[in-house]
């Protein structure tokens, strides 16, 4: 829901720490002057403005829940500026949901105004985007399948509750693992902090960053707790975090 969460006046939602202000989770990949975004959240426009995004070369989707796709229409300015259709990569299930949610983009009817121009690429294995090899990492998000993505020595896995053993094999030797850790209280579709820490222990990345964080977790207090528990290499991610990735 983002933090501050609407109607909430808890200590995190009213925090003065800018790292406690959280848009919906997304990731921007930048390589040799080209860019790709993972998920177009409802905050995509604001996120793009914040980083001064001038071009976009591809969009990847983890899954089709509202907090990950509802900024889809805001790729139109990039279509217009670049005079080209946008490559979009997603699982066949996510593509079907995109076609349903944004029917006006895909119904083939004449449009009297601009609509997103896209080229759909169903994900069925590793693929190349902006000169980067992307390895899809299947996971379960409650009762639906989702995709994480590995790129070089980093991986991004938001919104999951179960990671199959076959996917864990794709996550060896990481410098940076960005993964779901919603809160301390159990949730049927997301990892808790303890579950995420257990996965960090198992996979042993050099660094881990927790994302998709609910308003129950204070940035500074949670980081202190993680360090005190013997995890100085684990921290909450925050809006605007930049990482250099070894490819």
Task: Summarize it.
With 247 residues, the protein is of the alpha/beta class. The chain contains eight helices and twelve strands.
Provide structural commentary.
The longest helix is centred in the C-terminal third of the chain and has 11 residues, at 193-203. The relative contact order is 0.14. The mean pLDDT is 97. This protein is 23% helix and 25% strand. The protein has 247 residues and is of the alpha/beta class. It has a seven-stranded mixed sheet. A five-stranded mixed sheet has the order 1-2-3-4-5.
Properties at a glance:
8 helices; alpha/beta; 12 strands; 247 residues; 25% strand; seven-stranded mixed sheet
Mean pLDDT: 97
- The SS-based structural class is alpha/beta
Helical stretch tally: 8
Cross-sheet strand order for the largest sheet: 6-7-8-9-10-11-12
Number of strands: 12
Given the C-alpha coordinates, what overall shape results? globular
Stretches where pLDDT is under 50 for at least 5 consecutive residues are: none
Report the sheet with the most strands, covering strand number, pairing sense and barrel closure.
7 strands, mixed
β-strand percent reads: 15-25%
Order of helices and strands: EEHEHHEHHEEEEEHEHEHE
Distance between the termini: 33 Å
Radius of gyration: 18 Å
